[in-house]
Amino acid sequence: MRARTAVSLAALAALTLTVPALAAPATAATTATTTATATAAASAAADVTAPAGFVGISPLRVLDTRDYNQVPAHDQFGPLTAGEYYSTPLASRCGNHPPSSCEAVVPTDVTAVVVNVTVTDPTADGYVSLGAANGTPGTAPATSSINFTAGQTVSNLVTVAVGPVVRGAPWISVYNNWGTTHVVLDLVGYYQPTATDKYGPLTPTRIADSRVDGTGRLGGDAVRSYQVARPELGTADATSVVLNVTATEGTWDSFLTAYPSGSPLPAAGSNVNFPVGSTVANQVVVPVGVDGRIDLYNHAGWVHVIVDVVGSYGPSGKGLFSALRTPVRNLDTRVTGPQLQQWATRQVAVVPPDGSVPNIMGVEANVTVTDVTEYGHLTAFPGPGLPPNTSTVNVAPGQTVANSVSTGVAGDGTYSVYNHGAPVDLIADLTGYFTTG
């Protein structure tokens, strides 16, 4: 199932020189006006999965290309190469001899999965894109899932439609655009038509900040618990919560793992990977423990932790999810201009104007920030109006950073991104819709 694409060196170089460390150059999915971006989303609207409810799980490692025993299809062992589409089953392992089969870790009728993607040991600046199936050899996806620099270890939460069931398990595809890199996938949830938990968008709310709330840094090999089922947040009966977790001022290279209170620490799985002294945010989806809490584990050193609640799933939710089988780029200010200025808000059009996807209450998106000259952060929220006192993407000079966004939409079919720092370029990719009715 592994496909090594025959992309010429010249073609790959052209991609890198045109838009370093980002998805391929502007295509039909990258348009020049707000109306056109909404139309671009509509053009892909028919290619969505069936509406489905959500099932959250503790992090489960389904792929680690560094470890032969963590590669379900053992013939795929090793780092991804430049221009390669890499297919992997959502399975614990696959038999190597007839009858060839895989032990699926999700039901075969799932429509989409939520995975935390970690890239490590890349040899060049680049990006990775997840999709339902391999693209045509010699081509690159029009959107990106995670961006990185040479030698960096970085994570991002990605929601992706699954491909066909093969050898007893659904498969997904991972594309690497440049150099070689190892990829780790931790499954944290999936969408299934028969699942009953639905999405509820929330006004992003900060519930913890160890820099100011008196709790202090979280130590190494230590766990801190957070109450997330709270009536005032609208999460009283939530079975899973959507958080934006930020690690800052860490004293060692480390990672954070979120999991339901009362459950054992997962044997493998990470949510936020951060180098010493940095500020790194990542969206996290985690089941709620029976006591209404979630636990957060820090692997090494001491680190300040900030937790924002941005959404939930449960019986009070209203939204079923339909994933775009081919994600769509809604906005790229490198192409359309202008940059998103300091203290400014940009509305991102996501609802198709032709009504082809009715009753949209929210979206799942991937937001990438680039051409950064100063430290800062951006906040995604349903809009309109003033932004909440939370953060979505933290940036530093010279970085290109991506983060997943789950958000409600305003009445005009947009969501908003507010920039607290110096002018930056903003790229927004749509991966799916939450709908009611």
| Terminal-residue CA separation | 38 Å
- The outline comes out as globular
Mean pLDDT: 89
SSE ordering: HHEEEEEEEEEEEEEEEEEEEEHEEEEEEE
Structural class: mainly beta
The number of helices is 3
Low-confidence stretches: 1-46
The value of Rg in angstroms is 20 Å
Helix share, percent = under 10%
Topology, number of strands = 27
- Tell me about the largest β-sheet: 5 strands, antiparallel
- Give the DSSP E fraction (strand runs of 2 or more residues): over 45%
What would you note in describing this structure?
The chain has 437 residues and is mainly beta. The chain has helices spanning 9-18, 34-43, 333-336; strands at 53-64, 84-89, 91-94, 102-104, 112-120, 126-131, 146-148, 154-161, 165-166, 169-176, 182-192, 198-209, 222-227, 240-248, 254-260, 272-274, 279-287, 293-298, 304-314, 320-332, 344-349, 360-370, 376-381, 393-395, 401-408, 414-419, 425-435. It contains three helices and 27 strands. The strands form seven sheets. Strands 2, 6, 7, 9 and 10 form a five-stranded antiparallel sheet that branches. A hairpin with a 2-residue loop joins strand 9 and strand 10. It is globular, with a radius of gyration of 20 Å. The model is unreliable at 1-46 (pLDDT under 50).
